[in-house]
Design goal:
Helix content is 32%, strand content 20%. With 398 residues, it is of the alpha+beta class. Strands 1-4-3-2-7-8-6-5 form an eight-stranded mixed barrel. It has a four-stranded antiparallel β-sheet with strand order 10-9-11-12. A hairpin with a 6-residue loop joins β11 and β12. α5 packs across α7 and α8 packs antiparallel against α9. The N terminus is likely disordered.
């Protein structure tokens, strides 16, 4: 599972892990958390309503409020609060028992968005990536009830798995989650001079076989060991360069400081054999860091960082390609004019329900000002990146 930048992962620390089975189960009337008009849950809701109930946190019912109603038998595999967990509002991973699907998904995530006072940074980021032509998970906000009690607004996030690939017309292939900062495309551990114990350190295989791990190791080796004179020729065989540069532009615009060394997935295309990169966990963006604190708009340089990015941008042709791509995005997509309507629409949809979140009562005033804050960030970040491109676009000499 994806490890987040705050010390948790979907299997233990700040995340409950939920498994759903819909076969061979008879749902009893007293297990149902609510029906039409029950439990004070509005029947008509602009947000989808997810409800989970259970006895001893072992069995539960998950209902989605959208006609026709769906009831799913839920088993909570683990629901532990890690002693190092500092966030009271926890996220959940939902996994269905094969071969069952829920609305076409075998797995999805309910992200608490606890540190983001706007609730919208993750979704805004993924929608932005999709807009600029990059692959990214689909996301929607939901209102979550646990044992009849509203526990707030969550982001229902699509899993990056074989269904994700099929929905986008991509052939099946191995998928790796970058679960910690050692997924930095380097031979060395993050921020040390110590060699990694294994080239694939920092990654967790989500889909594929042990044989596929060899291709990931080979990618890391080629990135680090290929002479510069041969690098452009070799790396094009291993990496989808245009797709990576679009991801790079998205990460740079949204100012995701952690996205360069984790919080992404790698997918190897089964036909052209090239790796693709897919963003994940983008709540620490749009002017705020992993603790929700304000970041200056110049905090993250135009060329980003990590070993792979540095080597790619040292190739004049790739550098020029990136500059032109980023210039176009700054002109057309990463602008206040383009993004403000979407920001306001997301904010307006959530506004009536923020006060229902028991874990975030202290951010109500901040929530109200977040659209203006994000728009100001976009304006200032856009200007900073434009200025940076003037000195960056020409390859360094000597």
């Amino acid at each position: 599972m994806f490890k987040d930048d705050r010390g948790g992962d979907y299997s233990d620390a700040r995340y409950g892990r939920v498994q759903i089975g819909v076969s061979a189960q008879i749902l009893q009337r007293d297990n149902v958390i609510f029906e039409q008009g029950d439990s004070g849950v509005p029947c008509e809701h602009p947000l989808r309503v997810f409800a989970v109930a259970g006895s001893g946190q072992k069995h539960a019912i998950c209902k989605q409020r959208k006609r026709p109603s769906h009831f799913l038998n839920v088993q909570l595999i683990s629901d532990l609060v890690h002693p190092c967990c500092k966030f009271p509002k926890r996220s959940f991973q939902i996994t269905l028992v094969p071969p069952q699907l829920f609305q076409g998904a075998r797995e999805f995530h309910l992200n608490a968005e606890y540190v983001d006072p706007s609730y919208i940074r993750n979704k805004l980021s993924f929608d932005f990536f999709i807009k600029i032509g990059s692959y990214a998970p689909r996301a929607e906000h939901v209102l979550l009830y646990l044992n009849g009690e509203c526990i707030g607004i969550y982001l229902k996030l699509e899993a990056v798995d074989d269904i994700f690939l099929a929905d986008r017309g991509l052939p099946a292939g191995p998928i790796y989650y970058a679960v910690n900062a050692n997924a930095n495309f380097s031979l060395l551990r993050h921020k040390t001079t110590e060699a990694k114990a294994a080239l694939e350190a920092g990654y967790q295989r989500k889909l594929g076989t042990e044989a596929d791990d060899g291709y990931l190791r080979e990618l890391i080796f080629r990135i680090n060991a290929t002479p510069q004179a041969l690098f452009a020729h070799i790396i094009k065989k291993w990496l989808d360069i245009p797709q990576y540069l679009r991801w790079l532009a998205g990460a740079v615009c949204t100012q995701n400081l952690d996205g360069f060394v984790h919080s992404y997935a790698l997918y190897r295309h089964a036909e052209n054999k090239r790796f693709f990169i897919i963003p994940w966990d983008y709540d620490a963006t749009w002017g705020r860091n992993v603790n929700g604190r304000v970041l200056a708009p110049e905090n993250l340089r135009v060329q980003g960082f990590n070993t792979l990015t540095a080597r790619l941008l040292d190739v004049p042709a790739f550098r020029t390609q990136y500059v032109r791509l980023l210039q176009d995005i700054l002109d057309t997509t990463f602008t206040v004019e383009h993004l403000r309507p979407h920001i306001l629409a997301l904010h307006d949809a959530l506004r009536p329900y923020v006060s229902m979140d028991p874990y975030k009562q202290d951010v109500l005033a901040t929530f109200a000002t977040e659209p203006a804050f994000i728009c100001a960030f976009i304006e200032e970040r856009n200007q900073f990146l434009r200025q940076s491109l003037k000195t960056f676009q020409h390859p360094r000499s000597g």
